[in-house]
């Protein structure tokens, strides 16, 4: 299986350098061009997706819809359409949503439409890493692993479209399902301080994608799933986002280990499709995309 972990296109919150979180931040005109370029690149390279999963927030949903648009019909004649799930939503930043991310104070300058001051009565705590890990594991167990085990020999291509922080948490959860020695890197990709592949700490630009190759090395003697960790034996990938509250990173009891499977990292934050793409001048490129001016299906023609 080839897996593509993709971040959504540029939004007005990205341009304003503000936390968006669960806020439905609008894509910019440049963000729509990023999506179009990515979609056409996948199509031109005959990267045909069997399944596309996406966060149900509009910036990820529209990115996923754009990727699906030039895809050929499935073997059964059906169209490739995104499967939306709230498990892939971005971290909920509570009262910090809309606030400039470089400021340590909730009194920092805010994005357009957001008051710059927040009273103590209005403060809402951000989502914990424990909660994000639970959502990521829920997605893996409910959607990803059943697809992986349905036909291990099938050469499926799967796209997962989400957000920068939750993609990082999802990656850490995915890594924990493998024996570290079964994870490898393509030449030119390096983990932190030259460490093993399991210590890779990726990040994502807008529409940047991580490409993975997951395959079964050998037929497991029993079930392909093996109970692995207890709640007291939590492995946390270095570079994972951590909180000061609650148990360490919130790994669920009884994590599973993929026995007889390997994962190779083919690309990290691949942005080749953005080479030569220029932002429209005069502030138009950074402005919110207005779907009243051009329908999305026309935009991708």
Automatic annotation (TrEMBL):
Would you kindly state one Gene Ontology biological process term found in this protein's UniProt entry? negative regulation of glycolytic process
Q: Among its keywords, does the record have Transcription?
A: no
**Organism domain of life:** Eukaryota
Entry keyword Hydrolase: yes
Sorted UniProt keywords:
Hydrolase
**GO CC terms of this entry:** cytosol
User: Which residues does the Swiss-Prot or TrEMBL record annotate as the active site?
Assistant: 8 (tele-phosphohistidine intermediate), 90 (proton donor/acceptor)
Q: Which residues bind substrate?
A: 7-14, 59
Q: Which InterPro entries match?
A: His_Pase_superF_clade-1 (IPR013078), His_PPase_superfam (IPR029033), PG/BPGM_mutase_AS (IPR001345), Phosphoglycerate_Mutase (IPR051695)
Supply one GO molecular-function term: fructose-2,6-bisphosphate 2-phosphatase activity
Do you know which Gene3D superfamilies this protein is assigned to?
Answer: Phosphoglycerate mutase-like
Name this protein carries in UniProt: Phosphoglycerate mutase family protein
Source organism per entry reads Penicillium cataractarum
